Amino acid sequence: MTIQQLLKTAPVTTLLLVSFIGLFIMQVLTGVDANNPSTEALIKWGANALPFTMDSEPWRLVSSAFLHIGLMHLLFNGFAMYFFGQIAEPMFGSANFLALFLLAAIGGNLLNNYVTWQGIVDGTGQAGLSAGASGGIMGIGAALLIAALFKISVNGMVLNLKSLIFIMGINLVYGFAVPGIDNAGHIGGAITGLVIALAFAIAYRQRMAAVIQNIATYESDYLPHYQSEQQNEYHTTYINTPVNSDTDFDNDAHLNNTHLNHDSLHNESHVDNNSGVNSNVTVNPIRPTLNETPNEKSTAIKPALIWQLLPWAVMLFIGIGFMWWWQDIHQQLVEVLSAIEQSTV
C-alpha cells in the first residue's frame, strides 16, 4: 500500500507514523544518539518517568507514546502500527481509532507506573522510565482480536483470529524473554483495548440485529405480495381471437404451441399471415412497487440510542477512571515524600 493509499484509507494511522518518524528525526538533529539515547535526553523529550509523570507532569502519559528509544524500537513499532492501523482504522472509524490508541497508551503507562510504585513501596523495585507506542499498539491489536471473535468485517473481509492471536502472542513472549521491555505497558494497553473493543462489538451486534430485523420485515411485507402479483400477471392477459371455423391452425399459429414470452406480452397485436388469424392480445400487467406494499406504514427499526453511544460512554468512563488512578498514585507519592521530608528535619 502506497503512502497516498494509506492516507486515504487510514489518515490517523498515517499521521501517527509521520509523528513517530518526525519526532525521532528532530531528536537526532538535536544531537540525541539514534541507537542509544541517554536517560536525560529521553526525559527531556517526554518519556514516562514515575517521579515526573506521577508528580506534576501527567502529560508524559501521552507524550511517551510518540517517543522511541532507538532506531530499531521505532522500526518495530512503526511496522506494527502500519500493519494494525490500516485494518483497525477503517473498521472502527478514524476518531474512534485515535481515542483507542491514546487510551490504550495511557492505560499501559499507568499500569507501568503502578507496578513501579508498588515495587518501590515494597522495596523490591526502583523508578525507571519507558517510552514507545507499544501500549497503544497492543490495545489496537487486542481490539482486532475482539473484532475477529465477533466476526466484525471491514470491506467485506473478516479478520483471521488465529493469525492475530499468533502476532499478539509473539509480542508478549518477546516482552517477557527480552530484558528491558515494558511488559506492564503492553498488558495495560491490551486490557484497555479489549474493554473498548467489547463496547464496539456489542454496539455492532445491536446494529446488525436491527438490520436483520428490517430485512425480515421487508421480506414478510413485500416479497409475498410482489410474488403473488407477478404470478397473476399472466392470468390477467386477455386473448380475443376471432377464428374462422373453416380455417385450421397450422403448427406456427396453433394456440397450444404458442409461447407467450416476455416480448410478446408487450405486443398489442400479432398477425400470423400463414394461418390468416388476427390475434388481438391485450395485456394488463400488474407490477407492484415499493409504494404498493400491503404494509405502507412499516418503518425501519433503529438500534436504541444507548447502543449507539455505548462505545463513547465506555471510553469516557475509562478516561475518568484513569484520572482517578493517576490521582490516587499521585496522592500516595506526595504522602511518602512528605513523610521523608519530615523524618529528615
TrEMBL record:
Q: Which domain of life is it from?
A: Bacteria
Q: Which Pfam families match?
A: Rhomboid
Fetch the InterPro entries from UniProt: Peptidase_S54_rhomboid_dom, Rhomboid-like_sf, Rhomboid_protease_S54
**What EC number(s) are associated with this protein in UniProt?**
3.4.21.-
Nucleotidyltransferase as UniProt keyword: no
The annotated topology with respect to the bilayer is:
Multi-pass membrane protein
Alphabetized GO MF terms = peptidase activity
Query: Please, one GO biological process term?
Result: proteolysis
> What coarse category fits the chief subcellular location reported for this protein?
membrane
Transmembrane intervals: 12-32, 65-85, 97-115, 127-150, 157-178, 184-204, 305-326
Tell me the keywords, alphabetical order.
Answer: Hydrolase, Membrane, Protease, Transmembrane, Transmembrane helix
Residue ranges of the Peptidase S54 rhomboid domain?
Answer: 56-200
Q: Does the keyword Signal apply?
A: no
Which cell locations does it reside in? Membrane
Q: Name the protein family.
A: Belongs to the peptidase S54 family.
Q: What is this protein called?
A: Rhomboid family intramembrane serine protease
